[in-house]
Amino acid sequence: MRAEPHLSAYQANERKGLFSVGSFEQLSASLHAMVERQYTLYNEKLMPAFEHLGIKIVSHGERNGAQRRWVDQYFEREVRPLLIPVGLDPSHPFPQVANKSLNFIVRLGGKDAFGRENEIAIVKVPRVLPRLIRMPAKVAGSRALFVSLSSVIRAHLSTLFPGRHVGQFSQFRVTRHSDLSGR
Asked: What are the structural domain ranges in the chain?
């Protein structure tokens, strides 16, 4: 299902026809319910099943000192060199992002190296990076411990923008020319 005609109808306050405020609201409710089912499945079924098998995805807040140091080193060695932070301003509009790739949008405070006050930046994450990274035994012990790439990047966003304050941020993915079932 393509969302654009529903969004355009919603923005134009169309009340009649196949694409309307009502069709947008119905699509939105359907997709929100689908995402809620996904989170429920992930948190209540998959994660406990993985834990039962000795597999755990360790969040930033759960990492001990040794694990945090390992993640810092991994980020500097494997991730940071491949990230593409792009500041947005009138001369640098929203960049092209790869279809179905991980990206972060970041609200920044302060001025950049050129004295500009661009408040928004995008961090493009190349697809070659693994979404889950296994921690080595020296910090994981006998368990299979993993960290998510998004968690690693979130923990280090401020290092990508030296001299700037990183405020709000969110990760996103653009899905183009793909049919999604809203059922």
From this structure: 1-53, 55-176
Statement: 55-176 belongs to CATH 3.40.50.2300: no
- Please name the residues in contact with 36: beta carbons below 8 A apart, sequence gap of 6 or more: none
Can you point out the beta strands (E) in 110-183?
120-124, 132-134, 144-148, 165-172
β-bridge mates for residue 169, sequence order: 106
Its sign, for the CA torsion 172, 175, 180, 182, is positive
Closest CA to 157 of 96, 85, 92, 94: 85
More confident residue, 174 or 103: 103
151-168 per-position pLDDT tens digit = 999 999 999 998 889 999
Pick from 91, 160, 90: nearest CA to 125: 160
pLDDT at 93: 65
| Exposed / middle / buried, residue 169 (Cβ in 10 Å: 0-12, 13-18, 19+) | middle
pLDDT of residue 174: 79
